[in-house]
Write a structure and sequence with these properties.
This protein is mainly α and 590 residues long. The protein contains 25 helices and 8 strands. It has helices at residues 3-9, 12-15, 22-49, 56-59, 63-71, 83-93, 100-123, 135-152, 154-158, 168-181, 185-204, 210-225, 260-285, 291-306, 317-325, 332-347, 357-368, 375-383, 385-401, 405-425, 468-478, 499-514, 526-535, 538-541, 550-561, and strands spanning 78-80, 314-316, 428-434, 440-442, 454-460, 486-490, 518-522, 546-547. β5, α21 (468-478) and β6 (486-490) form a beta-alpha-beta unit. α5 packs antiparallel against α14 (291-306), α7 (100-123) crosses α13 and α11 packs antiparallel against α12 (210-225). The model is unreliable at 566-590 (pLDDT under 50).
């Protein structure tokens, strides 16, 4: 393997030599320690969101972050447990597992399956598949997911227990009934205090490590007042010391088909979130991001993590931003953060015993407020109503189908593609006429008079099976005039043509020729000419029917007609459609 390929597939080779610079090494160590201080409480909170014991967040926070740093192209990207993926894990597995042990086993298996899918897509360089998840779909989904994430933590915030199962809105109804009957006041006070402090610290300065400060303060208060023993509050409790042993995930072939749709959804959504973060960072650092390499890195992270009892992970915007702001220069910062988590698991787990679970719920609730974006939905509606419809539909369907979030995404993506196809089936067709300023413009929009002898049509769209009929209808509508002699088709807006479009073009040319009407083309792009040539129909249509500019084809038509203009009006020599300007200065601007 050549040196360039090694550096491509092993990106850490690109930065490991830079660590000889003491300034870079020092900056990465500081950034890594800073990152770990945010990672530790967030990892526990997201594990709780995934309905797993909080310490499983650590298992998802040391191997994946190190592997991603070594094999990813983004130097500041931080991979690990994130709220959106954790929610999808809980939403899918909550209906399948019969007990906690089975649930954990399924979550680890899901990480392996997600990793294998991402790795396979990366090897095949199929990262473009995420493009099927349009921005309105993701926008609607993330807003709905933020609401689901936040509301799913209310029971822990109030210190109550709510039966799981059924739709998310049904669980919310049950939760309301339980809370109405009474809540655990010490837990509620602890949780609300944590939420208030998080918002206050964010308001004072977003760069303040509010999550870390709140975690330390509430843990300290919990220890001092005996929150668990004296008030009956729920705390993290005992965390097994040491890192989990390397072990292959337990593969239950009976459960695999049931989590296949969740695997696809988590793999694509997780990668989409990751590559969006990497690109956002790259705009500030001016790094070169390899999208398929990031897909490979995410796949390897999930696979390697599953061998150490990790649930599915992806890139984190908050923690990546922390790394960037802390001055991280290379992937070493993420490696350092992973090593700090390992040290915590080996020697300091007892420090986290008294952390209240309501604090973790507060961290989740506050963190997901950053996922709620209403203005972009309004903006999408203003850009195109179809985009607004897709965003709103994805939002509503995700809420309705929760906890089956994959169904909301699937239907939203299908609706997005369907509306796109609907738009392309009816592309814009303009009948052109010479404007007084000399440019050719849409006759309807500019209230221009059309010529009786010559129809000039501009088609803005690809000629494929869905739009070929619209093109043919437009031409047939224009040829109703018995005086029509020429149809000029401006194909500058046509970028692609398929077999249906090709057959339609040949048919239209032949039928109009038999009716005494000649069809001519102008500004046809090379890829269209090549496609017609490969199909063997360019000669059948006639190469001489294709012109490079509209003025040239009009000059040809004017010469062919001579002085015989079958128009109702007199058509003087300076007719703006038939002839160039008398001074020879031809204006052409569409």
């Amino acid at each position: 393997m050549s040196n360039s390929l090694l550096h491509r597939y092993l990106p850490f080779l690109n930065w490991i030599g830079e660590l000889k610079d003491r300034h870079i090494l020092r900056a990465d160590i500081i950034a890594g320690i800073t990152l770990s201080l945010v990672l530790i409480p967030q990892a526990m909170a997201n594990a709780q969101l995934a309905e797993m014991p909080p310490y499983y967040g650590f298992y998802a926070a040391f191997v994946p972050i190190i592997v991603s740093a070594l094999f990813g192209s983004s130097r500041q990207l931080s991979t690990g447990p994130v709220a959106l993926v954790a929610l999808m894990v809980a939403s899918e597995l909550g209906q399948l597992a019969v007990d906690e042990q089975a649930y954990i086993a399924y979550a680890i298996l899901l990480a392996l399956m997600v990793g294998l899918l991402q790795l396979g897509l990366g090897i095949l360089r199929l990262g473009v598949l995420v493009n099927f998840l349009s921005h309105p779909v993701v926008l609607g989904f993330t807003n709905a997911a933020a609401i689901i994430i936040g509301t799913s933590q209310i029971d822990k915030l109030f210190g109550v227990t709510v039966e799981r199962g059924g739709a998310h809105y049904e669980r919310m109804i049950r939760m309301w009934d339980v809370i109405s009957a009474g809540s655990h006041s010490p837990t509620l006070i602890m949780g609300l205090s944590a939420i208030a402090l998080l918002f206050i610290l964010r308001r004072i300065n977003p760069q303040i490590p509010g999550v870390l400060i709140v975690a330390i303060l509430t843990t300290g208060v919990s220890y001092l007042i005996g929150f668990e023993q004296n008030y009956g509050g729920q705390v993290v409790g005992n965390i097994p010391e040491g890192i989990p042993a390397f072990a292959l995930p337990i593969i239950d072939w009976g459960i695999v088909p049931h989590i296949l749709s969740a695997t696809i959804t988590i793999a694509l959504i997780g990668y989409l979130e990751t590559i969006s973060i990497a690109k956002a960072i790259a705009t500030q650092t001016r790094q070169r991001i390899d999208a398929n390499q990031e897909l490979l890195a995410q796949g390897l992270s999930n696979i390697a993590g599953s061998f150490f009892q990790s649930f599915p992970v992806s890139g984190s915007f908050v923690r990546s931003t922390v790394t960037l702001r802390a001055g991280g220069q290379t992937g070493l910062a993420s490696v350092i953060a992973g090593l700090v988590v390992i040290l915590l698991l080996l020697f300091f787990t007892q420090l986290l015993y008294h952390m209240p679970l309501s604090t973790l719920a507060a961290i989740v609730i506050v963190s997901v407020t950053a996922l709620i974006h209403v203005k972009p939905i309004i903006s999408a509606w203003k850009v195109h109503k179809h985009d607004g419809i897709v965003a709103i539909a994805s939002f509503a369907l995700t809420l309705i189908f929760a906890p089956h979030l994959d169904q909301g995404i699937l239907i939203g993506a299908t609706l997005s593609i369907a509306l796109y196809l609907y738009r392309t089936m009816k592309p814009r067709v303009a009948f052109l006429a010479r404007h007084p300023d000399g440019a050719f413009r849409d006759a309807v929009e500019h209230d221009l008079e059309l010529c009786d002898a010559i129809a000039t049509i501009r088609f803005d769209g690809s000629l494929y099976f869905g739009s070929a009929g619209a093109f043919e209808d437009a031409v047939l509508e224009r040829i109703r005039d018995p005086k029509l002699r020429y149809v000029i088709v401006d194909t500058e807006g046509v970028n692609e043509i398929d077999a249906t479009g090709k057959e339609m073009l040949v048919g239209v040319v032949q039928r109009l020729h038999e009716a005494g009407i000649e069809v001519l083309f102008t500004r046809t792009k090379k890829q269209i000419m090549d496609a017609l040539n490969r199909a063997g129909v360019l000669e059948e249509i006639g190469r001489d029917r294709f012109y490079t500019t509209l003025d040239r084809v009009l000059a040809h038509v004017w010469e062919a007609l001579g002085d015989q203009y079958p128009c109702d009006r007199s058509c003087p020599a300076e007719c703006p459609l038939h002839r160039p300007r008398p001074d020879g200065d031809v204006f052409y601007r569409v």
